[in-house]
């Protein structure tokens, strides 16, 4: 599935039709026992990121202090309620994403942005390492104008650091959060269920200047 897929996002007319039914989820969060469809509790906020195979990305975020709930799914394409097999064809337009609910009193959105930038290579376009295809693109999906402003500022700051280190231009998309479609149960917290499972996530080694003193 890694090769021969489209290198561009299909148009809405080209995308697979999908279905009206949401993905059934029978299992709670494997580590915390919380309902993955739980509403955002009062005082907490949500964020969504795409940075390669969502198995490894979710583990990075559930290990981030202040994250109350993590879940994997698909977003940024056209096909409603896609399956993993459909996303892997490249014909849904979706990205593999991680959505988190976090406590801003314990971890700020800027902190999450730093985790995002430092744990993948945002200059690779429609791939991440050996994982190739539109579902592995780098993306920040924002829920508020404040998040959008912070994301744009962080991209500009990190682009300068990457350029100094010899990397090319950042290809990360920053858009308003599109609909989030849950991935199948077996993908949720996959690397906790399968500790020896595949993880292709790796950063550039370039620190992100968010919150750092010059």
From TrEMBL:
The active site is at residue 53. Residues 1-20 are annotated as: Disordered. The keyword Oxidoreductase applies. It comes from the Bacteria. GO terms for molecular function: L-methionine:thioredoxin-disulfide S-oxidoreductase activity; peptide-methionine (S)-S-oxide reductase activity. GO terms for biological process: cellular response to oxidative stress. Its EC number is 1.8.4.11. Residues 46-199 form the Peptide methionine sulphoxide reductase MsrA domain. It is an enzyme of class 1 (oxidoreductase). Pfam families: PMSR. GO terms for cellular component: cytoplasm. InterPro entries: Met_Sox_Rdtase_MsrA_dom (IPR002569), Met_Sox_Rdtase_MsrA_sf (IPR036509), MsrA_MetSO_reductase (IPR050162). It catalyses: [thioredoxin]-disulfide + L-methionine + H2O = L-methionine (S)-S-oxide + [thioredoxin]-dithiol; L-methionyl-[protein] + [thioredoxin]-disulfide + H2O = L-methionyl-(S)-S-oxide-[protein] + [thioredoxin]-dithiol. Keywords: Oxidoreductase. Belongs to the MsrA Met sulfoxide reductase family. Has an important function as a repair enzyme for proteins that have been inactivated by oxidation. Catalyzes the reversible oxidation-reduction of methionine sulfoxide in proteins to methionine. PANTHER family: MITOCHONDRIAL PEPTIDE METHIONINE SULFOXIDE REDUCTASE. This is Peptide methionine sulfoxide reductase MsrA. It comes from Thioclava pacifica DSM 10166. The gene is msrA.
